[in-house]
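I am still learning, so would you mind making up any protein sequence you like and the tokens describing how it folds?
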Amino acid sequence: MFGALKQFFARVDWRMALMLGPRHSFTDEQWQRLAPQVAISPSVKVAALVNAVATSAMLVLQLPAGVAGPTFLIFLAQALLMLCLAAAIWRRPTMKRLYIAYGLTSFPAGILAGFTMSYLKNHGLSEIAREVLMRDVMLGILFSFGIWVVAMWRNEFLADWLHDEDLRAQAAEAARKLSSAQIQPHFLFNSLASLQHWVLTKDDRAAPLLASLTAYLRATLPLFERPLLAVGEEAEAARRYLEVMQARLGERLRFSLDIAPEAASVQLPPGVLLTLVENAVEHGVQPSLLGGEVRVQARLLPGGELLLEVLDDGPGLPPLAPVAEGSLGLHNSRLRLQQAFGGRAALKLANRAEGGCCAAVQLSGHGQDQKPL
């Protein structure tokens, strides 16, 4: 029994239980991150006003007609003052603001209550004065508790939001590193194995392969340290990758890159384009004895939407899957696009009418204010 009570009280948050105020504090950097979350919608403002009027009206019910009107206006003024203070706490729910709100609420409320009591007594309405005083106290307790609830709930909500954002950022970082790890190991292993074989057999293709592989590593190794990368920069890394694969596959691989200047500066998560190019080579070129062609093209559509396409002339997608989900690499690419841009970005695979497959990334609203979510 004693052990159960001990465990129960060990789980009690005494700051909350004793109504001492919000428990989380935030740095200036965190307040900047929270800026989009602190606005109060018009609907909430109207709802607060309606509740202030309704509460004030309920508290003056059954008072004499000559007293009810002025008392209602006094109660409403106090309620509106408390709502203004609650709005300040809604924006920044800190313990300091909560106690300041209590102090600012008590002082003018006390003055108004004292003025009302004095007026009523001077007019021979002592019984009514006591009744009004009790109702004023009720109003003060009601709104004080409401302000405390607002402060505690908002403080917990904003702390949870920051925690969730940090988790999302960590997930995005993990997905970014995973994409990097997926692109490089088997490609590098196969390339090095080919290079080793050609060196041992004194094949003339060894030197061009080594040069292309070195250029690829120089172009790609720094890329995955950045959350976003310009399409033009990753297209250069894709070119180096295709040069390495061309050195290995010879005439079986043909490729071209057509990146419009206005599309080159649009930014995407690094590795997305490389994943699409790698899939095109693996599934569109290597299965065929005659090889195939990979084309990379990026342009802006008339509405300003980015369209990045990787096309091949291979066997295409299976007949029963005209729009495929694709590999784990494609799944992670979709995830990273969604994490960075939400519904503004999409990655789709589809068969081409002339044969082969088209992998397309579409990004809307990239403009001058393009930023990850």
About this structure: The radius of gyration is 34 Å. The domain at 184-363 is CATH 3.30.565.10 (Heat Shock Protein 90). The chain has two domains: 20-171, 184-363.
